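Regression test case RT-17, inverse folding.

Input:
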């Protein structure tokens, strides 16, 4: 009987079997990583990163840190990852009227930081018998029966809501654009010496300064530039200290017309003006008007009311200054400037091409066609369609 001899045979793995093993290994690793991620996610949103401290910083002289944190709706113990910071910011702005802006940030692993800025009462917005006190960025702070002293009053803008805490808004998109452009530009000024703004016609905005100067700035384009230009002209030696009217001529020029009577007639004074503190609360210093008539003021008003407007000269101007140069008028109220160009009593002039430019920035060409201040032709050439309260 023969003995059976055992031999060993080495198995040679095929390439297919190797690729299959590698594929299974990749799937296994991916499954493990996914499981770890899910566990980590669940732990992070349940046990880890829970808020243990809420820090409040910034400016607020009306609310405590506790009030601000409470208004956010976020509490200690809430999960930092699950906290909706946008919702918390909106809640603070809605509940705390005198907070202008809020920024909520997560500071891992356990801290929530809330930074606020306070509202500064910056404008009155006249709404007929009521006046809205609003902040620098247009947040409604209060609805009053009086005008808050020390801040400009805006006329001709009718907001759709008077609720404190809301951002002021009109249903007229053009007025909204003009209003926001005005308050944004005025908010950049270091010294706001403006008493009132009329934007009944957003294309003919009128700014009244505390020094008795009136500035007809036209529309709301380039408000920054126009305000800076007006401020520069008012500081020129030939204009400084005088009362009258500045008018934008075209896009980059200003004309000045000085009134013969330097006394200022205030407009839009149908609402009584009471002294108030910074928050709009009425205060009394014991020097309120007695109600007795002032003979000098009555005489001034009488002269004003009995003025002769037959020649269309509403304020009885007697001099015209362009770019700060004072000129002597002739018998018709016109004058020649330093460049030899004749300006009539209405503020119009002829340029070297024979085009007549009116006080609104528009002009007539030599064929009688009228163009507005942007160079656009007006269909009815000799009737520009512009109206002017002052009859210039």
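Golden output:
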């Amino acid at each position: 009987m023969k003995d059976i001899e055992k031999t060993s045979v080495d198995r040679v793995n095929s390439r297919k079997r190797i690729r299959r093993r590698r594929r299974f290994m990749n799937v296994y690793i991916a499954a493990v990583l996914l499981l770890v991620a899910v566990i980590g996610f669940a732990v992070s949103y349940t046990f880890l990163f829970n808020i243990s401290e809420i820090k409040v910083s910034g400016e607020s002289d009306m609310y405590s840190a506790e009030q601000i944190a409470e208004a956010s709706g976020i509490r200690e113990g809430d999960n930092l990852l699950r906290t909706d910071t946008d919702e918390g910011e909106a809640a603070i702005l809605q509940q705390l009227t005198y907070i202008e802006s809020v920024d909520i940030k997560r500071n891992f692993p356990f801290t929530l930081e809330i930074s606020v800025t306070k509202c500064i009462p910056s404008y009155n917005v006249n709404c007929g018998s009521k006046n809205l006190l609003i902040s620098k960025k247009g947040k409604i702070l209060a609805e009053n029966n009086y005008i808050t002293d020390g801040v400009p009053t805006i006329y001709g803008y009718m907001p759709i809501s008077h609720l404190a805490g809301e951002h002021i808004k009109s249903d007229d998109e053009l007025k909204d654009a003009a209003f926001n452009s005005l308050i944004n530009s005025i908010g950049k000024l270091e010294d706001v010496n403006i008493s009132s703004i009329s934007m009944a016609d957003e294309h003919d905005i009128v700014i009244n300064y505390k020094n008795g100067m009136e500035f007809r700035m036209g529309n709301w384009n380039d408000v920054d530039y126009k305000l800076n230009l007006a401020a520069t002209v008012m500081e020129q030696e030939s204009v400084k200290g005088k009362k009258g009217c500045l008018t934008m001529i075209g896009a980059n020029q200003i004309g000045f017309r000085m009134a013969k009577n330097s006394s200022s007639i205030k407009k839009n004074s149908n609402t009584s003006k009471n002294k108030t503190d910074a928050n709009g609360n009425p205060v009394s210093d014991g020097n309120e008007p007695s109600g007795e008539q002032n003979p000098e003021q009555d005489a001034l008003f009488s002269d004003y009311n009995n003025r002769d407007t037959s020649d269309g000269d509403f304020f009885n101007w007697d001099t015209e200054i362009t770019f700060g140069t004072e000129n002597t008028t002739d018998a018709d109220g016109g004058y020649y400037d330093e460049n030899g160009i004749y300006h009539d009593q209405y503020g119009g002039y002829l340029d070297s091409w024979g085009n007549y430019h009116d006080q609104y920035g528009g002009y007539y060409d030599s064929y009688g066609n009228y163009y507005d201040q942007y160079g656009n032709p007006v269909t009815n050439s000799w009737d520009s369609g512009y109206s002017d309260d002052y009859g210039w």
